[in-house]
Amino acid sequence: MKDILYKYLSRWTSLGEEDQQAIVNEIRVEKLDKGAVLFKQGDVPAACYFILEGCVRQYAIDEDGREVTTNFYTEEQAIAIFNHHKSDKSSEYTFVCVEDSVLVVGDLDQEKDMYDKHPQLEFMTRRMMEENFSKVQAEFAAFIASSPEARVKTLLANRPSLFDRVPQHQLASYLGITPESLSRIKKRIG
Amino acid sequence: MKDILYKYLSRWTSLGEEDQQAIVNEIRVEKLDKGAVLFKQGDVPAACYFILEGCVRQYAIDEDGREVTTNFYTEEQAIAIFNHHKSDKSSEYTFVCVEDSVLVVGDLDQEKDMYDKHPQLEFMTRRMMEENFSKVQAEFAAFIASSPEARVKTLLANRPSLFDRVPQHQLASYLGITPESLSRIKKRIG
DNA sequence: TCCGCGCATTGACTTAAGTCAATGGAGATC
DNA sequence: GATCTCCATTGACTTAAGTCAATGCGCGGA
Lengths: 190, 190
Hints:
homodimer
């Protein structure tokens, strides 16, 4: 299981094996059941997460009471960017496990300690953040420019496993369409 | 003009007046004409920017040759997040002035020097990045969840000045709709 | 094992946005 | 000042997605 972590550390840092082991040994890994909530919209997050196995859905309830799914995190993805800019630092999103999942959990109040002990971690965090940011920007651009049908095709091409792992109506919400439309589009392009 | 900068520094750092002046004096401010290009899609950006006055449009040409506008930057906004994650660090977007503009230009190869001299700047940069990230995420979520008409209403509410400053067909592209639809929606909700 | 609920699918209909085409106005150029 | 070009608007028509409603399958709980 932890080999995923080693792979990730190697990709993003130039740490030696001993340092990597030191980090991995300090790390808390938790197993969460399907339906488990990492934290809720309005909560102040106490930890950041890195997915070793499973799938986490990010969603918000908007002003009209509708549930909007804004992301799915799967293996090797980090949930680490929150609303630092909001004065109360509360989350605008709820994060919930779509499947039984195994996550690295990093307590935010130990963040500084970890960075002091392992300076390269801070660099890695920055890089992950930049990568995530670029990705979200690119996805946003693609979303703006494409029709619902094109969006479904893109998602099928880029993350086909989501269609097996995630309920259709949540996928539809993530794609900005109704479940009925998603069903019809799938039939049309199937 | 530079009072905008002071305001911004005060908001984001706890620097004393002397330090602020030191920073502001080191800074390069440039006046650019409407139509001037900061850098093009495919270029490796040499600088980051902060808008004191004017308006910059961010766009990309997609695979089908269509121009997709992905953002408009106006007063007090920073253009500072690039594709650090791409191996060649080239930009996926072109940035062009929609109006005559006045920008702070920060050479990226002097970035480290500036951070060494003024450590708080690095903190400020991180914060700006986090804020931008949260904002893009929130905008994305809102975009997913709303119809073209609702998106127009939201933009009218949040950034009404764009409708005066920016050509309609570019706004339409930014909103993910055709210029014809934008025209009709405006008439409908006007 | 059986029952019940949630959810995916399908159908009929409505509606809003896309497409194609024409018009007309404002600003730029000479 | 006249012309040209670009672009916003408007119209007619097409199409795809939304809405409302019914059905039926599958999964989980008792």
